Amino acid sequence: MLMTGKVLRFDEDRGYGFIAPAEAGEDVFMHANDLLDAKYLYQEGSEVEFFMEMGDKGPKASQIRLVYQPSGNRLPARPALPDGSAADRQDGRAAAGSAAPSVARFRTELTEALLESAGTLTADQIKQVRECVVGLASARGWITP
């Protein structure tokens, strides 16, 4: 049966830990051999999906997959622009007849897009990707200084 839950603890070196199922019940044993993602990604609080099995010593999770990875490095979901204003449109496209976005506005919108599409990126990874894309957009004239 497919279930969801949160990782209570996972010892990457020893390769095992426990999941608290979303449904009421006892904690479920998890082993590194049953992880579908890299084991370093499974941290306390990570939301997972798994199949419940009965092992020799009680409930055991198999085919464990990350659903959501919390990160202390995440930025706010909708950061304010440097001038304190909000984005012009929800879809991120410029209104008809408007000029190319400023570098600051483009950085903010790009950061939001990265956070929404890849929640497991660290702040440093977001900064690296963002600066690479900003450099490319500036070189192509897609954004104004």
Automatic annotation (TrEMBL):
Gene3D superfamilies: Nucleic acid-binding proteins. Residues 72-101 are annotated as: Disordered. Residues 2-66 form the CSD domain. GO terms for molecular function: nucleic acid binding. PROSITE patterns: CSD_2. InterPro entries: CSD (IPR011129), CSP_DNA-bd (IPR002059), NA-bd_OB-fold (IPR012340). This is Cold shock domain-containing protein. It comes from Streptomyces sporangiiformans.
